[in-house]
């Protein structure tokens, strides 16, 4: 039997063995299969592969194995006996992947063959390899053609076959980014082709000449790298540049020709080895030319950039600094520029000179020796000076008492100081001093060089100082006075003496207001103190009054005396009801004790001025009181003071009378005794003893858009005499409405915030279990009307002397309520509104002794609603049968009501309406009114009214029929003829004369004089009201502002300003709460001479409109007495009629000239270091100074016009200071004052007009038409101020030159890169060179650096705007837009013509024709045909170069022919107002008002009124 034999083999770890065992079958020797397969890793160490066996017959015969074929290379070995097949050396997959062997088994002569296949498995044993370590290529920089493109291909080889022989490529290095940016290179991962993705830059700062890449080849496990260098070929794409754009150099004056100035060096980032791309040549593009020889001053070496002087001897005193532009040009023609600033260093070659040869000094004796008495200024153009000063010994009286020290910093000069204290009381000092001083600029050794020494005389006079305080002979007094001491009683005399001025100084006495807040004491000029007001011990038992004695020195000195007053009591107060003042009793209750009434008395009980009291029921009490109440007096009650015992006599019924007022007659025990009647209030408490009945109710609701909160509507009403039974009622809907909610417990109804306007009918049922009632019907009609916030804010409040319940309650017979009657009556007087008059809110006011109601009336489109209602207050009150106590809310009154202890508003006070977000509900059972709660915000300070929004057109934008036009920069007004300014204001007004009375029926009589009512004077401490008037009437009231009734109602503010003519002379009545004061101007002649005169009241204010919206009577806009057209004088569209009836003239608008104002003026351009000095042919008035001009600039600093007095002591300058327009005024001996328009933006490259005016102590500054507080300001100074203008040397335009001899040393306030036009001094045109060197009023004596016209280089050169916009030149600036007359289309892809006719700009029936070309006479691309804006044809109205202004604010005042009972109560802050009045016929009072942007002053200097 044959057996299978399995021979196990021990195989080393890691080797593979295939054991082939064959079963022996038939035949002598035989393999089981004809082919065997085995796998082996390449490079594996030799080991056994197979163990071959064969079956033999007969069993046990030896078998011989051998490799018969396939082992030609001897790689394999087969053990002939055991049949073990091995390989002898590592196999290589790359040489042969498979070996096929033929194996033979032999037993005797019998053989058997089989095939053994040995497969070699691959191992990654070869890394990729590049043929070289570095690959290089060259391309041209900035070459962007055919991108991306292949610039180089790198290949690596891998000797592995199959998968490990496939190579992939990647790249890193320069231009390859990991942050997501687009790379400059990419490599094909299979081919190794390197692609250029972006053009490369070779040059600094961001480029490089060689770009370094690193390419990696990998077969998945093994890598190889190669470096790739991309070399860039240079092109000339970089212009030279100077690393230091500005080089500062210094060279001494007087240096010879060829002296080294500076070395400049430019850099070119192109390759210097590449042709001439970086080869530089230097030149001077903007050299400086010597005016005398015409030769250039500097030269440059073209190869090395060395700058030298091209001529001899620079003069620093002539030119201190040069600016040279250096150009570096490369071989390709590209250029770079740099600037060399050459500072000429000083050589001390100019001698010093005192600015004055003789100094006259007034010095106060109080100055100490270390204080500088004066600065002796020195002129010396050199900067390398070493000044030394001395007082020349023996030169004059007092030379040894003074020294001169060099002044450090600031003005050149020496400070004169005293060596010893100066004393005016010393007779030698009082005589004064005279001595000589010297200066040298070469130090202490300079006295030897006579040409560097200058001398001047000093005359010094001492001024007595106020160094003694007044002294009282007696500074204390103590008095005891009864409180009934009559006013006018002499109390004490305090006499003071002042030793200054030889004892002749005047002393002024006054009472310290802090020690006498009530103003009860007064002192006269002799120091006599008298009682000015009544004393009240109950208010103040003692007074400590401080009396001041003030001398007239500067500064004044004050001494204080004290008057102590003890006030004794007199029995001047009757008893009052102390407790209780109110009691309650339930209705239907039986007789009972109500109260034990106690009394009090503010008098001094220690003097018997009090208890025991007496109390009794008033014998004149009504019958219902005496029948219901009994009063008994208990003498022993309240500790013997006495009490009143009050009882009810019978049951009381609340439905009959809710409150019983019990009058009690009370008295004290004084001598004589005082008695009065007091009231005990008895409230009758309700019982639910009456049934309900169905009822209907009407509720009117006003809401404010948008409404975001629920609106309370009051309670559902059923008819029920009981009113304390609300808790027993239950409310329910009959038909629920989603816009309303009901509180079923209280019956309160609420409306949802999104409820639309309309009328809503609501149904409810009411049940009362205590009365056994259910389902009683109640109907509520709700009418909803929405308002805008402006409707509410602009509403006018009226205060009615009635409680809110009776104001809104409708009569039982179906009559109208007081509120409805009020609205109907107001509509009869208010005209001009599309919606009429409506009551927007009704509010209760807690006033004493009876409550009152505030009703807010609104009439959109009527700007003077407040004035109309105030004017018709009495008629309105008569129509509704209720007294109207107040129209509007007076300044600070509301705050006084809400605050018990309100501090005094020292800086002015104001009040304005505001929305609080809440609602007020006035419920009168059958009717209710619901409206927004309008609060009154009041407080201290001069608040301004919020100006109208100038970005959108509204009813308030343009006045007097002006048409509003929206533009890209805001709104503009197309103004009718006769109006002025950006908002079409009318600035003059004519008044007819009359008696100013009404007939017996209250109708206006024909004899009533004309008047006009304008907004009120602002209640501020700083107000400036400026007005001009023309009249023939010697007696008239020009202006009145005060209470609406004379005399004023007690307890109400009574501030009064009344300006009158009395006998042709102005008189001012002023009462600001401290008592009336009258100021009269003692003019030498009557001002009723039919010429214009000007008056100034110093506070502050604004330009007032006197046009169609002004409430008036027998008054009309304009002034026929001074109408140029009526006199045959035509001023054209660019002029205004000015002057008095006998001397009318045309005053041209800024920028226009000629007799008809039709010729444009020629502006002047001011360059760097420029100025114009004018010599006037007339002498400006010292009391009055006016300067008018136009300018345009982007610069923020520079002088426009400066007026000087001789020697420069006084100065008026109009200049720009850090972007603000300012007026700087220095009038000796006052300190300098500055007046600036701090918020007006005037350095915007546009034309702006400026008006600076000084009239005595009043000074004004305006820009453009002065509209609004941004564009005007004013200040006042004490005393009569004079400015004596030096007409030969004292007018400078564009800067003030400083001279040494005839050479200009420096330009102060240099106004450059700007234009000035149309300068007028005191209303006379001044010449502006080079276009005009002289006029009838002056001559340009010197000028430098000016050019005619106002041209500017094109700003749009090399400017590209994104389509469809184009560059719009705006004079030295630009913006991207569609251009004049064109707008961006709705798709924003094209610009199209703007049809301006949609704005309806033509007035008075004119027809508008649009001009698609966009060409227009001036500002707008349209034309009007017909009578537009008066009697003339419309031609694109607008002044030359005008710019839109911000809206003005409205102050308030009343202008009146007589003391009419009209007033203004609510005021707002403004800046400054000017008013003109004219009276135009001898038999009538015909005043005319006029507001002028360029006011005309009275040339005599005595028509002004000033007060502070």
Can you walk through the features of this model?
- The protein is mainly beta.
- Helix content is 4%, strand content 41%.
- The strands form 28 sheets. Strands 79, 80, 81, 82, 83, 84, 85, 86, 87, 88, 91, 92, 93 and 94 form a 14-stranded antiparallel beta sheet that branches. A 7-stranded antiparallel beta sheet has the order 71-70-69-68-101-66-73, with no helix packed on it.
- α5 (818-829) runs antiparallel to α7 (873-880).
- The model is unreliable at 1-26, 893-903, 996-1002 and 1413-1508 (pLDDT under 50).
**Major sheet characteristics:** 14 strands, antiparallel
Report the span from N to C terminus.
151 Å
Give the overall shape, derived from the CA principal axes.
extended
- Percentage of residues in strands: 35-45%
As a percent range, the share of helical residues equals under 10%
List the total number of helices.
8
Gyration radius, rounded: 53 Å
């Amino acid at each position: 039997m044959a057996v299978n034999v399995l021979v196990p083999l021990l195989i080393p770890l890691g080797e593979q063995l295939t054991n082939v065992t064959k079963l022996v079958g038939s035949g002598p020797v035989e393999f089981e299969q004809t082919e065997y397969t085995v796998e082996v890793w390449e490079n594996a160490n030799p080991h056994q592969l197979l163990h071959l066996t064969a079956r033999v017959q007969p069993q046990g015969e030896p078998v011989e194995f051998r490799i018969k074929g396939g082992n030609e290379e001897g790689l394999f070995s087969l053990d002939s006996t055991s049949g073990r097949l091995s390989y002898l050396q590592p196999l290589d997959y790359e040489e042969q992947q498979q070996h096929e062997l033929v194996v033979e088994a032999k037993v005797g002569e019998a053989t058997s063959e089989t095939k053994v296949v040995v497969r070699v498995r691959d191992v990654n044993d070869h890394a990729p390899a590049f043929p070289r370590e570095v690959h290089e290529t060259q391309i041209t920089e900035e070459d962007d053609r055919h991108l991306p493109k292949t610039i180089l291909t790198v290949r690596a080889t891998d000797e592995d076959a199959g998968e490990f022989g496939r190579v992939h490529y990647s790249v890193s290095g320069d231009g390859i980014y990991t942050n997501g940016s687009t790379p400059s290179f990419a490599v094909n991962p299979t081919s190794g082709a390197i692609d250029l993705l972006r053009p490369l830059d070779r040059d600094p700062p961001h480029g490089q000449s060689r770009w370094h890449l690193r390419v990696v080849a990998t077969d998945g496990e093994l890598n190889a790298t190669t470096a790739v260098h991309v070399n860039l070929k240079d092109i000339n794409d970089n212009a030279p540049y100077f690393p230091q754009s500005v080089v500062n150099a210094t060279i001494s004056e007087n240096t010879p020709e060829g002296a080294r100035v500076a070395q400049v060096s430019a850099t070119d980032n192109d390759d210097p080895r590449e042709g001439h791309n970086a080869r530089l040549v230097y030149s001077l593009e903007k050299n400086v030319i010597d005016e005398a020889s015409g030769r250039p001053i500097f030269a440059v070496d073209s190869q090395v950039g060395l700058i030298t002087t091209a001529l001899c001897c620079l003069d620093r005193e002539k030119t201190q600094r040069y600016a040279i532009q250096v150009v570096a040009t490369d071989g390709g023609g590209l250029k770079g520029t740099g600037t060399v600033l050459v500072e000429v260093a000083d050589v001390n070659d100019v001698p010093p000179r005192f600015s004055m040869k003789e100094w006259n000094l007034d010095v106060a004796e109080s100055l100490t020796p270390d204080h500088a008495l004066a600065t002796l200024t020195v002129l010396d153009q050199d900067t390398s000076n070493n000044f030394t000063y001395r007082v020349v010994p023996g030169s004059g009286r007092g030379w040894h008492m003074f020294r001169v020290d060099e002044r450090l910093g600031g003005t050149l000069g020496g400070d004169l100081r005293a060596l010893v204290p100066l004393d005016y009381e010393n007779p030698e000092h009082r005589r004064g001093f005279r001595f000589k001083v010297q200066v040298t600029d070469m130090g202490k050794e300079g006295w030897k060089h006579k040409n560097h020494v200058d001398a001047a005389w000093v005359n010094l006079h001492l001024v007595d100082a106020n160094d003694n305080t007044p002294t009282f002979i007696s500074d204390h007094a103590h008095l005891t006075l009864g409180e009934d001491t009559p006013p006018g009683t002499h109390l004490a005399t305090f006499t003071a003496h002042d030793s200054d001025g030889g004892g002749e100084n005047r002393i002024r006495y006054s009472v310290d207001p802090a020690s006498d807040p009530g103003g009860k004491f007064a002192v006269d000029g002799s120091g006599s103190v008298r009682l000015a007001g009544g004393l009240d011990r109950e208010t103040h038992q003692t007074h400590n009054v401080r009396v001041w004695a003030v001398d007239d020195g500067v500064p004044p000195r004050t001494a204080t005396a004290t008057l102590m007053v003890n006030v004794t009591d007199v029995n001047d107060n009757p008893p009052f009801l102390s407790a209780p003042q109110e009691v309650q009793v339930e209705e239907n209750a039986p007789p009972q004790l109500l109260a034990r009434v106690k009394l009090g008395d503010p008098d001094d009980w220690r003097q018997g001025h009090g208890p025991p009291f007496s109390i009794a029921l008033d014998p004149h009490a009504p019958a219902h009181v005496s029948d219901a109440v009994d009063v008994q007096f208990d003498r022993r009650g309240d500790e013997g003071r006495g009490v009143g015992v009050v009882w009810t006599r019978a049951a009381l019924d609340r439905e009959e009378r809710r409150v019983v007022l019990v009058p009690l007659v009370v008295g004290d025990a004084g001598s004589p005794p005082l008695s009065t009647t007091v009231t005990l209030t008895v409230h009758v408490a309700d019982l639910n003893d009456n049934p309900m009945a169905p009822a209907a109710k009407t509720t009117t609701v006003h809401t404010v858009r948008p409404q975001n909160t629920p609106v309370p509507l009051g309670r559902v009403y059923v008819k029920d005499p009981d009113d304390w039974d609300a808790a027993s009622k239950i409310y329910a809907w009959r038909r629920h409405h989603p816009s309303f909610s009901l509180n079923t417990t209280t019956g309160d109804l609420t409306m949802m915030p999104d409820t639309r306007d309309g009328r809503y009918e609501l149904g409810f049922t009411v049940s009362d279990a205590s009365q056994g009632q259910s389902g009683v019907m109640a109907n509520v009609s709700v009418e909803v009307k929405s308002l805008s916030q402006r409707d509410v804010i602009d509403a006018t409040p009226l205060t009615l002397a009635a409680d809110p319940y009776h104001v809104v309650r409708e009569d039982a017979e179906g009559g109208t309520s007081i509120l409805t009657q009020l609205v109907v009556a107001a509509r009869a007087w208010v005209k001009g509104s599309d919606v009429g008059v409506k009551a927007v809110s009704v509010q209760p006011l807690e006033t004493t002794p009876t409550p009152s109601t505030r009703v807010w009336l609104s009439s959109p489109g009527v700007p003077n609603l407040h004035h109309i209602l105030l004017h018709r207050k009495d008629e309105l009150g008569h129509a509704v049968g209720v007294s109207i106590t107040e129209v509007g809310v007076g300044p600070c009154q509301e705050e006084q009501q809400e605050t018990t202890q309100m501090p005094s508003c020292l800086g002015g006070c104001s009040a304005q309406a505001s929305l609080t977000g809440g609602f007020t509900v006035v419920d009168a059972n059958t009717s209710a009114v619901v409206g927004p709660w309008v609060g009154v915000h009041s407080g201290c300070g001069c608040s301004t009214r919020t100006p109208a929004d100038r970005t959108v057109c509204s009813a308030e934008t343009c006045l007097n029929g002006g048409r509003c036009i929206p533009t890209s920069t805001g709104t503009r007004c197309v103004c009718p003829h006769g109006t002025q300014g950006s908002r079409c204001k009318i600035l003059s007004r004519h008044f007819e004369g009359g008696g100013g009375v009404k007939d017996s029926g209250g109708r206006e009589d024909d004899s009533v004089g004309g008047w006009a009512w304008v907004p009120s004077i602002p209640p501020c401490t700083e107000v400036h009201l400026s007005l001009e008037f023309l009249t023939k009437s010697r007696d008239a009231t020009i202006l009145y502002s005060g209470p609406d009734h004379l005399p004023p109602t007690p307890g109400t503010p009574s501030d009064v300003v009344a300006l009158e003519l009395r006998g042709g002379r102005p008189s001012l009545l002023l009462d600001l709460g401290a008592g009336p004061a009258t100021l009269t101007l003692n003019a030498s002649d009557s001002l009723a001479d039919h010429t214009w005169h000007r008056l100034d009241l110093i506070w502050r204010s604004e330009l007032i409109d006197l046009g169609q919206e002004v409430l008036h009577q027998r008054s009309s806009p304009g002034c026929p007495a001074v109408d140029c057209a009526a006199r045959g004088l035509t001023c054209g569209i660019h002029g205004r009629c000015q002057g008095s009836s006998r001397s009318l003239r045309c005053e041209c608008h800024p920028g226009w000239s000629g007799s008809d104002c039709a010729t444009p003026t020629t502006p002047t351009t001011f360059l760097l270091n420029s100025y114009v000095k004018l010599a006037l042919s007339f002498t400006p008035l010292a009391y009055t100074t006016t300067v008018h001009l136009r300018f345009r600039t982007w610069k923020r600093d520079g002088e426009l016009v400066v007026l000087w007095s001789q020697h420069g002591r006084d100065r008026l300058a109009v200049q720009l200071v850090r972007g603000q327009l300012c007026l700087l005024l220095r009038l000796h001996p006052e300190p300098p004052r500055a007046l600036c328009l701090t918020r007006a933006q005037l350095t915007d490259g546009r034309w702006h007009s400026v008006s600076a005016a000084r009239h005595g102590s009043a000074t004004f500054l305006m820009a453009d038409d002065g509209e609004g507080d941004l564009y005007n300001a004013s200040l006042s100074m004490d005393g009569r101020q004079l400015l004596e203008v030096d007409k030969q040397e004292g007018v400078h335009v564009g800067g003030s030159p400083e001279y040494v001899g005839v050479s200009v040393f420096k330009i102060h306030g240099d106004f450059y890169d700007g234009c000035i036009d149309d300068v007028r001094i005191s209303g006379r045109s001044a010449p502006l060179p080079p276009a005009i060197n002289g006029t009838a009023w002056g001559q340009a004596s010197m000028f430098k650096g000016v050019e005619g016209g106002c041209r500017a280089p094109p700003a749009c050169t090399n400017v590209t705007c994104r389509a469809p916009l184009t560059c719009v030149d705006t004079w030295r600036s630009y913006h991207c837009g569609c251009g004049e007359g064109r707008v961006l289309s709705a798709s924003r892809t094209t610009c199209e013509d703007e049809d301006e006719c949609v704005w309806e700009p033509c007035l008075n029936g004119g027809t508008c024709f649009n001009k698609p070309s966009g060409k227009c006479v001036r500002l707008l691309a349209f034309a009007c045909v017909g009578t537009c804006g008066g009697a003339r044809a419309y031609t694109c109205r607008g002044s030359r170069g005008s710019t839109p202004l911000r809206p003005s604010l409205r102050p308030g005042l009343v202008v009146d022919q007589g003391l009419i009972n009209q007033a203004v109560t609510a005021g707002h802050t403004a800046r400054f107002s000017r008013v003109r009045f004219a009276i135009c016929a001898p038999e009538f009072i015909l005043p005319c008002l006029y507001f002028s942007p360029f006011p005309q002053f009275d040339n005599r200097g005595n028509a002004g009124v000033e007060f502070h």
